[in-house]
Amino acid sequence: MAYLYFFQQLLNGLHSGALYALLAFGYSLTNGVLHRTNIAYGSIFAFGGQTMILGAVFAYQVLWMTLPASVLFGIVLAFLYAWLVGHMMSRHVLAPLASSTPNAIVVVTLGVTMVLTELARISADTRDWWLPPMLATPVVFAETSNFQATLTLIQLIDCALVLMTIALATLVLERTAAGRAWRAVCDDPRASAMCGVDVPRVFHWSVLAGGFAAAFAGIMAAFYFGNMSFGTGLIFGLKILFITAVGGYNTPPRAALGAFSFGMAESLYSGYFPLEWRDVAMFALLVVLLVLRPSDGVETKAV
Question: Mean of the pLDDT values across residues 265-282?
């Protein structure tokens, strides 16, 4: 039974690792062109999940839609708001400050986090809204007479969607002109502009793509947990910030792989050690890895 319990923790890590991987991939897309710490990234993750839940509740209770139609309405609404937030941040927040000091971006994105938090709180009327359990049927991978190692359908679907999203996005980055333009802007935006690359356009779409990735992860997390809080978004955002700092900001697939490994390690810790110390232990691990990580000697550039 001990080996099945270990196998169950590995299965649990697949789902949490997939969410971390998608978040890290999206954060790298934005940070690759921004080269600044974006505190608001975790809040977009939480805002996407909360918007989906509030949209579904509104459609079900006010518009009298069926549950599947209500959920679809909430998903569409979440992605629309993600586009709006990403557009506003790109055009009116990040682009004007991209060449300023790093502290300016930290302060402004912290302000964005506070705005999104209050918008969600006011929209929810300071209440917690929960989705009913959906696609919670367990799929058994191994079992004994008194123990089963399982994942639910929603966990399997989330993992498959994340894998397909990251694989497709990686293919775009490596095989298309848009991917080459993104890599050029990450490396040297001024030289890219001299070679004919539309740097503001690449910057804008990178921020939008990162926001969509965060909102997508937030939607999947809200489906699985049934609820989403901004405290959860802040913790996820801080972990992704450290993970991408360790793995490298300019390589989204590598950042995603590192984040997935972190999710697996966090799951194993949760299975064998006290949960109340989990975040402390995992942040300590990230700090140690960040200190031990050799410097690549690359100078940070601004758009």
Answer: 90
